[in-house]
Amino acid sequence: MTLNQILYFNMIVKTGNMRQAAEQLYIAQPSLSASIACLEKELGVKLFHRRHQRLHLTPEGEAFLEHAEIILHEIESARNHMEQMSEKRETMLRIGSISTPFCNYFPDIFCQFLALPENKNVQFTLDSENTLRLVYGLEKGIYDIILCSKTNDPTLKQYPIISNQLIFLCPRDKYSKPETWEALAAMNLIGYEKKSTMDGILEDIALSKNVHFNFVYRAPNEESIVALVEHGLGPALLPRNSYINHQLSVEYPLPYNTVIQRQIYLTIKKDFLYYGATGRFIDFLLQKAKEDSPDK
């Protein structure tokens, strides 16, 4: 059974005439008759009988019509749904991101992107999560793209677009710059929630310096960590960001003036066709990253 056979059957029901149905379908009448004969043979029943020069449904044909109408309704519903999705893809962006880009990066990027004539009707939603939840949301279709830390998921492609230097941040007038990694490890620190990507990055740094960081408080993102530091709960290691109020806190370089960068990656699905607003935004971000790269 094919979709065409169901469409042919439905048109014959509407017209009650094989010739008129063939004209409506723009096919030859013998081809239409042969297709319906094949359908009846496959189903093992007669669908029509002729009475007074018109084709009428048999009881079996009446039963088949109920199924045919359901199938055609679902096809029309699917077509409408896909058209709506196509329209939304042209104008809607669903973006997930770690918190760092929210204050400075996104406002500037969106102003530039929306200033382009082809993007004047684009709308967007922004959601803040940690990297693990963002990757899950991308894979489940909750987000079109995400900005997150490095992930080893083989189904994703990542492009570095933002670089933030790690710093030592502490409440003003309470701490001095840690001169050694051992001195830093001796402090009670505010860290990221366990098993988050940034927690793993800091643990790797500690391992490479042969120390162990003592995290006595933990928070989900830079914004909340900065707030805890500025309320005097302790120092933290985190990427430099725009949440920092330098009247309440002070930042120092890492011990021995070590420079460590945290990369933020534009992350998309591998082997997935992006088009519409999402495709244009991906191209825009990659071009901006290329223009801003010190190696250009």
UniProtKB/TrEMBL annotation:
This protein's record includes keyword Transcription: yes
UniProt keyword list: DNA-binding, Transcription, Transcription regulation
Stored InterPro entries: LysR_HTH_N, LysR_subst-bd, WH-like_DNA-bd_sf, WH_DNA-bd_sf
KW Cell wall biogenesis/degradation (keyword) present: no
Organism of derivation: Hominifimenecus microfluidus
Stated family: Belongs to the LysR transcriptional regulatory family.
Gene Ontology molecular function, alphabetical: DNA-binding transcription factor activity; transcription cis-regulatory region binding
Signal peptide stretch: none
UniProt superkingdom: Bacteria
SUPFAM superfamilies: Periplasmic binding protein-like II, Winged helix' DNA-binding domain
Transmembrane annotation, as ranges: none
Pfam (any one): LysR_substrate
Stretches assigned to the HTH lysR-type domain: 1-58
Name the record gives this protein: LysR family transcriptional regulator
